[in-house]
Amino acid sequence: MSTTATPYGARDHARAQAGTVVETMPSIPASTWPAPPPGVTREALTWAETVAGGGYTHKVLARGTRLRLTDVEGDACAHVLLFNADQPWERLNVADTVKVQWNAYLGEKVALLSDQGRVLATIVADSSGRHDALCGTSTVDANTERYGDGAPQGHSPAGLPLFTLAAAKHGLGPRDLPPSLSFFQGVRVQPEGGLDFAGSAGAGKSVDLRLELPSIVLVANVPHPVDPRPDYTVTNLEVLAWRDQPSTPDSPEWTHSPETRRAFENTADYLSARGIA
């Protein structure tokens, strides 16, 4: 008889797993993470997790939180969605993020805008420079055609069904999922309009976001949809978040451009009216 054939056996087996290494398991509490960022105390950490290739994660983060994504081994691809945690019908609008700021490429001081013209987050540090705001994430059909499977439980999960699973944990459904951003696998637009896959900047690169509104954060770590490599190639992603301060009118992000400043002013007006700031 299997050792898990009875409730008692299953319980003992489950308890025996404590302390074993599971790549997608977060550190709970986050203060137990072994290596907080320089200058950050363990007590300030609010999220600490390694997301394996083909995995996903999610968290609700407070306004002013600093979120660091790190491409540990050089082939992570962090697809990211953001929602206003207080009213999740307000969500990341990639098209507005690009067109309002006259910039198709993500980098330091770029604001990630919502569909209400407010700032959900800003990019405050970036050692990678290889990101994409044009292609979105992968789908079940595309991954099935390319890798033989795209289901979330399969050997080559697509980003969209992983986002669907993550969103469900926050009462959101498939219709609530807008196009996403992706970090660590770059795409550049060629003069004739084609897309050139630039790939990764290498292992250990990171990008820091500062949350300007309380936010639901969804992350799927899957290959970029235009990655030309025939194999399903994606490696570990490190996710760390800690308590910090939101931007102020004196922050460089506010004055990055007239359009960005207006989005920050919209955000400040919203927060003031709600008594948040």
From TrEMBL:
Q: Where is the DUF1989 domain?
A: 49-213
Q: Specify the superkingdom.
A: Bacteria
- InterPro entries attached here? DUF1989 (IPR018959), UAAP1 (IPR017792)
Name of a matching Pfam family: DUF1989
PANTHER family to which the protein is assigned, alphabetical:
RE64534P
The protein's name is Urea carboxylase-associated family protein
